[in-house]
């Protein structure tokens, strides 16, 4: 079955999302900020972390799995570092607050490292590092996610898809924004293959015995990127964003779906570096812009039209989608304009269930 896609203006999408989150019980300011993040993701073509997730968040908010009246605070623990206590409210809001604190520290001291302790799912990490790059900072962000990846050589899941994001400013308004899960493919891509009855490449996932599989229905675990290297990276992410904050890691990270009434206790870490403390900022930005120009001039190999910099496709999509409207699945739109807060479909949904 092919999905029908419709385009709607970004402002309309943002308002619809905010209304739904408000209906689920979130306070107005938080609903607006979360809607802004989710629309950012859809605008930039990161549809896996945009409007499609609203019903999941609405169910979790309505069932108490996210704190709607949180007591959050920033605890500065050293000249350049601190912990933002998230009180298990929506990750999108507290991870943004944490980034604001990290940028302030970096502006003052050259570096800002802020851990966000106890929060819900925080969406697309590019959002946070992009904020910093647009203020002439270099930034990295790491966060935990629930265990659905086999460690290198293993036949059981242990780590999450633990993403890494990085951004740096250039001498125009388009920063370099690199943002990726540490798995070869997201679970959403396996679902897509199921819906189209397609086989999957044999380096995406494993079956119940830990063997590579091309059958999307046999998938029981995802594979790290580049074997032991991706495995090492996802472990690093868990240590930086989980263990460093005294939070559960690995297979002890809470499930996305198992209990929608439970708080998730997730962690995230932002590292912001102020280039002006290391070099001359304008020269730094010009050097990165020159690098991009040189990359654009690289002869593309067969099958490629051009060489792009990380985040360039998203920048292009953002411009196109602002003009033509943001593409979202009709099914998602129908839910957003409906009276339903949610349809109880995520409670107990196994990450590897068919939905
Ligand atoms: P992806 O595979 O779509 O892109 C990865 C990177 O490759 C991006 O920086 C992109 O700009 C770059 N890229 C793509 N095509 C390119 C090309 N032709 N030339 C140059 N660069 C190119 O990303 P992935 O791994 O599917 O992650 C999607 C999102 O999911 C991210 O925003 C990530 O933060 C988010 N995520 C969030 C989690 C959470 O728990 N909050 C967990 C896992 C992922």
From TrEMBL:
SUPFAM superfamilies xref list: L-sulfolactate dehydrogenase-like (SSF89733)
Recorded family membership: Belongs to the LDH2/MDH2 oxidoreductase family.
GO molecular function: ureidoglycolate dehydrogenase activity
Annotated gene: allD
UniProt keyword annotations, A-Z: Oxidoreductase
EC identifiers of the protein: 1.1.1.154
Name assigned to this protein: Ureidoglycolate dehydrogenase
Organism placement in taxonomy: Bacteria, Bacillati, Bacillota, Bacilli, Lactobacillales
InterPro entries, per database record: Mal/L-sulf/L-lact_DH-like_ah, Mal/L-sulf/L-lact_DH-like_NADP, Mal/L-sulfo/L-lacto_DH-like_sf, Malate/L-lactate_DH-like, Ureidoglycolate_dehydrogenase
Organism (species): Candidatus Enterococcus moelleringii
Domain of life: Bacteria
